[in-house]
Amino acid sequence: MRRTIMAAVLLLALWPTAPAAAHGGPVVLDVAGDGATGVTVRATYKDGHPVEDRVLRLVLHATGDGGRKIGPLQLNPANEGQGFYASGAVLTPGRWTVAVTSPEPNPGKAQATVQARAPQSVPPRQATAPRPDEAGGGGTGRWWLVGGALLLGAVAALALTVRRAKATAGRRG
Fold it and tell me: Given strand 39-45, what is the order of strands in its sheet?
């Protein structure tokens, strides 16, 4: 009985590391544009799990229309999560054939056609008429002024009432 319990405990202790230990070897690289002038890559093991137990040395080469070439560039891990890599803004607008490779001990290679677009900027803010409650335009923007005047009047009335009560009490006594 004691041996069975010890074997079960040992099995449970080793179980969480078993899938991670199975990873290694070739990787699958998914290459795509980032919507502007960069490239993103998702790296997974052949079983579909993201490559999160190591940082890969991914290298990018790109050829654009008219024979433009970029690379070799090493890609850096991206903030999007484990197994994601990004180039940053390296392409000029146009059509590009992008190849990404990963050397040993985790070999991988992928190629994709990417349409790079000029980054979009935020449209300029439209001039609008101020709302009544903004910039002293009336409305509720001056509530503090009215509230302060009412508070000051209430304090003055209270002080006057207390003064009259003291004066009346002094005449009686």
Answer: 27-33, 39-45, 84-86, 76-77
pLDDT digits (tens, 9 = 90+) for 148-159: 888 888 988 988
Percent residues over pLDDT 70 in the chain:
77
42 — pLDDT class (breaks 50, 70, 90): very high
For residues 76 and 60, give the distance between their C-alpha atoms in angstroms, rounded to a whole number.
11
Topology adopted by domain 24-116: Immunoglobulin-like (2.60.40)
Distance CA 8, CA 12 (A): 6
d(CA 8, CA 66): 64
CB atoms within 10 A of CB 86: 17
Round to whole Å and give the CA distance between 98 and 78: 18
- Helices first, then strands: H and E counts in the chain: 3, 8
